[in-house]
Amino acid sequence: MQCKLPENQRHIETLDGMWDFAFLGETETPECIEPSQIKYDDRMPVPSAYDAYPRYAGVRGTAAYRTFLNIPSQQSGFLRLWGTGMWNRIILDGEELKTYSLPYSPVELSIPASDQTRRELVIINDNRFDAQRVPLQEYYYDFYAYGGIYRSIELHLPAPLYITEAHINPEDHQSGKVQARVWVNDHSLKSLSLQVWVDESQNSQHEIPLIEGAGSFSFQIENPQPWTAETPNLYKISLKTDRDNWETRIGFRTITVENGKVQINGKAVKLLGYCHHEAHPQFGPALSVQSHVQDLQLMKDMGCNFIRGSHYPMDPVFLDLCDELGFYVFQESLGWGNREKNFESEGFHQGQLEQTKKMIHSSWNHPCVIMWGYLNEGASNEKYAGPLYQELYKLCKSEDPTRPATYASMFPFEDLYFEYCDVISINHYPGWYSKRDQVRPLHEIDALFDRMLDHFQKIDQADKPFIMSEIGAGAIYGWRDALKSHWSEEYQADHLDVVCKRVVEDDRITGVSLWQFCDGRTYASAEALQRPRAFNNKGTFDEYRRPKLAYQTVKNHFTSSKE
Ligand code: ADA
Predict the structure, then answer these.
(1) Percent of the chain beyond pLDDT 70?
(2) CATH number of the domain that residue 453 is part of
(3) Is residue 22 part of a domain?
(4) Test site for ligand 1: of 308, 426, 515, 540, most ligand atoms within 8 A of the Cβ
(5) Same domain, yes or no, for 217 and 281?
(6) Surface-to-core class of residue 421, CB atoms within 10 Å of its CB (0-12 exposed, 13-18 middle, 19+ buried)
(7) Is the predicted pLDDT of residue 61 greater than 60, yes or no?
């Protein structure tokens, strides 16, 4: 079937569905595999983490995906891949388009025009750990690293002049003023005629001067309703040129950081919620909208208003749902416990900057995102890490001055870089990783909060909001035990009882993202010795989202704080 484009309009189609597939095993040089030699002997859904499926469970090596595109002759366009793991080589009609490794990050690739209308798209994907090929992902990260195409792929066939990006920034709901910046593909263009539509009605007409393909303008929405987690009011914005129609949704909410508080629309909020991995034992990180809604409904029901997307940028579908259902999101780039070897690697350094920038640009318009994060539990107590902490902070502030930036530190008392964050985020496990002779060491929890709060005062950081970005205890689902000690559901519930009580009652603590929403698969190697079943078992739900005892405990605290 020949596809016909609507005249002078952008045509977008999803490439999701069943693709040809082949698992090629431990190839020596996936860079050199000749696409025409690949024998596709299977079919695989896109999106999918193929190594989560029974036939390929746990394999490491090279895989190939193939599909065919139907593009009118002489039409150019681009592909948007919303998130892949771990290393990829993209080939169109036998020609290399790009080789990259930016797990969980969106990537765009131009499609050159051709006489042919049936185009062959091959994605060679490798899921082996390799410091050169995959500098951002190490074998020791405490969540299973899958291969495949985790998220949707879109084919965009725009008119010759099109909008590449727009940041729509509602100032505040009292004024209803919206500042906007728009970018087009043609950098020689001097001005752009554009109409703004709000919720299907025409709002305003603009003639925007452009410099190097970018220009700014503003418009007004009459009496807008504010966006908060409790009142997630959204407005659909369409930017229409005579050749394009670019759409997004926005919410009127401001974020400020003042006197040790995070303020939404000028009002201090207590952030209560979970760290959330995109993970399911059967599907890995390739989750459906149905599964995202399940997780969000469970968190809403417990009184959560806050989610830390650990430890990589969340799926845009998940962010859309957070916009719609009302959650505040801490959106962070991929990193986990990185040390000297990583900080000294050029690939890691550049990869951090590139993925963080892509994260900011691609999730800029989501009202749910209230802060940017980077380098989870990196070496923020070491001198060698300083330049990257500084660069990432500056990058966040220059790409987006409207949101605070932070990083989850595991060094509350030795951290050297609190100057490079607007919110102090601490990961710590009092009452869990404890001295070997301690039985039910719950007393450690309040003692740690006291010491940290004193310390932030002493080092003059108490004017920054403080979030407990990880804290928790493991429990094996169904393991109820008279001793109520480590790994029992009782101990986890008692532990989170102390944590939540403290966070809810102490005004100096801005919030908590408990570790973690649900259990998640981790190391397949002996690294798993502290991880029974090879899962991180600190979920309040198990990996199939079945609640443990702690569910009711956390819910009681989080819902009581709202009364
Ligand atoms: C760290 C890390 C988490 C998880 C946690 C744990 O804080 O950021 O990903 O590994 O420890 O369970 O120990």
Answers:
(1) 98
(2) 3.20.20.80
(3) yes
(4) 515
(5) no
(6) buried
(7) yes
Same-domain status, 362 and 238: no
Kindly give the distance from the C-alpha atom of residue 311 to the centroid of ligand 1, in angstroms, as a whole number. Answer: 10
Atom of ligand 1 nearest to the CA of 536: 12
Quick one: average pLDDT of 396-417?
98
Among the atoms of ligand 1, which is closest to the Cα of residue 432?
13
Indicate the angle between helix axes 550-560 and 489-505, nearest 10 degrees.
Answer: 10
Ligand 1 pocket test, pick from 334, 410, 427, 433 with the greatest ligand atom count within 8 Å of Cβ, gives 427
In a domain, 258, yes or no: no
Measured from the CA of 377, which atom of ligand 1 is nearest? 8
Judge whether 506 lies within some domain: yes
Ligand 1 surroundings by CB, under 6 angstroms: 142, 376-377, 427, 470, 515, 536, 538
Task: Check which CATH number belongs to the domain holding 212 and give it.
Answer: 2.60.40.10
**What is the 474 CA–ligand 1 centroid distance (Å)?**
11
- Give the distance (Å) from ligand 1 centre to CA of residue 532: 14
Residue 460 has a CB neighbour count (10 Å cut-off) of: 9
pTM equals 0.97
Residue with CA nearest ligand 1 atom 4: 142
Average pLDDT of the residues in 454-481:
98
The minimum-distance atom of ligand 1 relative to the CA of 474 is: 12
Q: Give residue-wise pLDDT tens across range 204-220.
A: 999 999 999 999 999 99
Q: How far is the CA of 34 from the centre of ligand 1 (A)?
A: 40
User: What is the predicted pLDDT for the residue at 172?
Assistant: 87
Q: What is the mean pLDDT of the chain?
A: 96
Are 172 and 279 in a shared domain?
A: no
Distance 142 CA to ligand 1 centre (A): 7
CB-based contacts of 91, cutoff 8 Å, min separation 6: 35, 97, 121, 122, 123, 124
Domain endpoint, select from 253, 275, 302: 253
Quick check: 162 and 243 in contact, CB under 8 A?
yes
Q: Are strands 11-14 and 153-157 parallel, antiparallel or unpaired?
A: antiparallel
What CATH code is carried by the domain that includes residue 30?
2.60.120.260
Report which protein residue has its CA nearest ligand 1's atom 12.
536
Ligand 1: which atom is nearest the Cα of residue 311? 9
In a shared domain, residues 444 and 505: yes
Output the residue whose Cα is nearest ligand 1's atom 7.
427
Alpha carbon distances (Å) from 347 to 341, 362, 379? 11, 22, 17
Whether 140 and 207 map to the same domain: the answer is: no
What is the token pair recorded at 376? 């989870």
Residues 373/404, Cβ–Cβ less than 8 Å: no
User: What sign does the CA torsion over 142, 382, 313, 99 have?
Assistant: negative
Number of helices and strands in the chain (H, E): 8, 33
Domain span at residue 218? Answer: 163-253
- From the CA of 503, how far away is ligand 1's center (Å)? 20
The pLDDT tens digits for 171-193 are 988 999 999 999 999 999 999 99
Residue 325 lies in a domain: yes
Cα 40 from chain centroid? 32
pLDDT tens for 264-320 read 999 999 999 999 999 999 999 999 999 999 999 999 999 999 999 999 999 999 999
Name the residue at shortest CA distance from atom 9 of ligand 1.
142
Using the mean position of ligand 1's atoms as its centre, give its distance from the Cα of residue 59 in Å. Answer: 24
Specify the number of domains making up the chain: 3
Last residue of a domain, one of 157, 188, 219: 157
* Residue 30 pLDDT > 70: yes
- Residues 313, 293, single domain; the answer is yes
